[in-house]
Amino acid sequence: MSPWLLSVIVELLVTLLFCGVLYYLRRSLTRKSLLFWLLLWLGRGALSMIALRYLTSTERAAVVLYAPLQVAFALALVVIAVRLENQKQQLRVLNEELARLRKAAAGQIDHDPLTGLMNRSALSRWIDEEHGFEGLVVVCDMDDFKVLNEQFGHLVGDEILHGVGHLISNSVRDEDLAFRWGGDEFVLFFRTCERALVESRMAGIEERLRTFHIRHHGQTTVRFSWGIASTTGRPLRESLAEADRLMYDSKRARRGDPPAGKPPASV
Q1: 128 is known as an active-site residue
Q2: All domains of the chain, ordered by start, with CATH?
Q3: What pLDDT does residue 264 have?
Q4: Which of 99, 121, 177, 241 could be bridged to 264 by S-S, CB 3.0 to 4.6 A?
Q5: Using alpha carbons only, how large is the chain's radius of gyration in Å?
Q6: How far apart (Å, rounded) are the C-alpha atoms in residues 211 and 226?
Q7: Element (H, E) at 242
Q8: Structural contact between residues 245 and 266, judged by C-beta atoms closer than 8 angstroms
């Protein structure tokens, strides 16, 4: 067998071996990586064949003797490729975990742990960032919540706040927003201008609270007052202040107190 033919056979065997190793490790490499290393090796093989064409018989024989080194080189390339892919995969997993932790941390910062609604700081930031919101804003406040706390204790008061937060969450749509403004006061933003629809939702919450069940204490009536204002064509803080004023007017009307002015609410 001529050295030229022997060199070609060795080159083909090494190439087949390299392709076989790539196929074996196909699940550890991406398609792009497989294609890259395959083209790289085929290019190297093509250059080797061209070089062998112009070598003497003695030089071709020497090339054949280096076949084990070629095999080692091929395996080394594959090992490097696998290690790179593993590192990329580990980095991808770490980035996903970091993104998840950041999202969870952001959720903890913006959400009130007792009611599950977004908190006051989230409300303030949303108002500053939101532009062009059109719909209705509702401010609601529980009536005589201090009396309930004194009658049943603060743990029961927390249970009531948790229940109110749950009712509010189930009464708003995905596109609406609900916040715990502080204490027993809540703010809801509805992405609709249909006042009758919003009033119906608020009346439904009020109706459910009339038969609120407290563990170990049975059924009790929880009342709350609310005010609605439009957000269309004016700043959100101005709409929020009006809804807050209307809520207090409603609360005074229920107690039979005369209407009184109230300074604009601050967020």
Answers
A1: no
A2: 3-108 (no CATH), 120-255 (3.30.70.270)
A3: 47
A4: 241
A5: 36
A6: 18
A7: helix 236-255
A8: no
Q: Distance of CA 19 to CAs 12, 82, 153, 234, Å?
A: 10, 14, 75, 68
Residue 221: helix, strand or coil by DSSP? coil
| DSSP reduced 3-state for 142 | strand
Task: Name the 3-class secondary structure at 182.
Answer: strand
Give the active site residue among 174, 184, 244, 257.
184
Structure tokens given for 266: 């601050």
pTM for the complete prediction?
0.58
Helices of type H across 172-215: 195-209
DSSP summary character for residue 7: H
CB atoms within 10 A of CB 264: 11
- For the record, the structure tokens of 145 come out as 């919540």
DSSP assigned state of 79: H
| Number of other residues whose CB lies within 10 A of the CB of residue 174 | 6
